[in-house]
Every structure is written in C-alpha cells, then in structure tokens.
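Input (structure):
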C-alpha cells in the first residue's frame, strides 16, 4: 500500500527503483545480494544479474522469485568476497547494530564491488510528521512517539567508517495529495499502528482535520520528501 501511494501521488515522475538500480550499476552476470529484500520489488529490473535475496521475514521471502536466504543482516551467511554488488534498500532503520550490518556488507563484497544503501533525509516528510505529532500530542502522547528516525543521511560519518568512499546521491521528490483519504491511509500504515486501537483512531482523526484544513486552503497537501542512497565502491 505504501509503495502504491508513492507511485500514485509522487511529484517526481522518474520511478525510484530504476533510479536506485542505475546507481547499483549491476551488469549481466554480476552477483548481487539484496539485504532486507522484502518481497523483491527491485528484482524484475535486474535482467541477467544473479540476485540473492536476504530477509528476516519468511512471509516477505515467500513472495521473492530469486534464490533467497532467511538470515540476519548483522551475520550474513556468505563467504568473504562473494558478491559484486550489495544493496540494502530502506532497511537499516530496522537493524539493531547498524555498524555490524555495514561491516558484513563490506565483508561479502569483492574488490572493485559496490554497495548501495538507500534511506531518507532526516527532514523528509517533515510537514507530514509534524501534523501527525501534533495530533498525537492532543491525545497526550509525547513528541515523536508517532515516528522513529533511526537511520538517515545524517549517519554518513558512520557509513564512512566502514565505506570511506561512500557518496550521497539524492532523489528529490514530494507527495501531492488532492484529498485527505490517502494521506490518512498512509499514516495508518506506518508507525502509529503500534498504538492502542482507540488512541490510534483519535490520533488519525485529529491528523485528518489538520490535513483537510491545508487542502481547503491550498487545494492540495504537498509534502516534500527526500530519499536517495549512499554509493560506496570497494577498492
């Protein structure tokens, strides 16, 4: 659902997945490890590349159509220098020891290989999260309880501890919502779902009122979002 929202309401008409894969630069015959693959949304664009998907979720891996391994990003079950490319797309937020995961990605890369790690800017969707947090505070929740930011481009120093050559490539975009329903659905599909059901309903109602007021005033609810990737070549 979240992917569909990005596809339908994004201002940047260049699809994000092909943009990422241009930076991955995998060639036919290359061995590519997709760390935290989810359902394998990137794989259809990788013709001729020998992809291995890795994820902790058996449910996600059941949807993957390439060779797959259920394992932890912090302990990759592969020999050193096993892959020409490694990508980790919007996954390091969920990893307890991010440095260890980065070290593991470096370990399994061949000399001359490349790692691509996608994430968001720390201020991506700021207007969205500000309204959501205001609605949460109306219900007595502390600030930031509705969203977590555990890995962003602000973590470049940590990435460069492991991959000194890492460069940041930005993908500038914005959501443009003409009505409130998809905004609320997107909010409900994220972090606030961990709240008790009755509290969540009240938070979303307050959020919807705020968004609707902006649409009534401006005609749309436009929210800037900046994603992108770290690109690191291993010499």
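Output (sequence):
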């Amino acid at each position: 659902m979240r992917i569909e929202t990005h596809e339908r309401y994004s201002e940047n008409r260049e699809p994000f997945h092909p943009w990422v894969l241009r930076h991955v630069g995998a060639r036919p015959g290359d061995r590519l490890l997709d760390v935290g693959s989810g359902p394998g949304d990137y794989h259809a664009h990788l013709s001729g590349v020998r992809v291995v998907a890795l994820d902790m979720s058996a449910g996600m891996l059941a949807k993957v159509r390439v060779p797959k391994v259920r394992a932890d990003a912090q302990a990759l079950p592969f020999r050193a220098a096993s892959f020409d490319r490694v990508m980790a797309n919007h996954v390091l937020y969920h990893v307890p020891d991010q440095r260890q995961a980065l070290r593991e990605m470096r370990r399994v890369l061949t000399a001359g290989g490349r790692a691509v790690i996608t994430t968001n800017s720390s201020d991506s969707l700021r207007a969205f999260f500000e309204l959501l947090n205001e609605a949460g505070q109306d219900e007595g929740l502390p600030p930031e309880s509705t969203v977590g930011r555990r890995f962003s481009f602000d973590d470049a120093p940590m990435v460069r501890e492991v991959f000194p050559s890492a460069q940041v490539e930005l993908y500038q975009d914005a959501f443009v919502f003409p009505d409130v329903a998809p905004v609320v659905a997107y909010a409900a599909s994220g972090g606030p779902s961990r709240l008790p059901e009755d509290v969540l309903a009240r938070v979303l109602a307050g959020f919807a009122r705020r968004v609707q007021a902006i649409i009534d005033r401006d005609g749309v609810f436009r929210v800037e979002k900046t994603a992108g990737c770290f690109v690191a070549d291993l010499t």
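Notes: The longest helix spans residues 197-218. The chain has one domain: 2-233.
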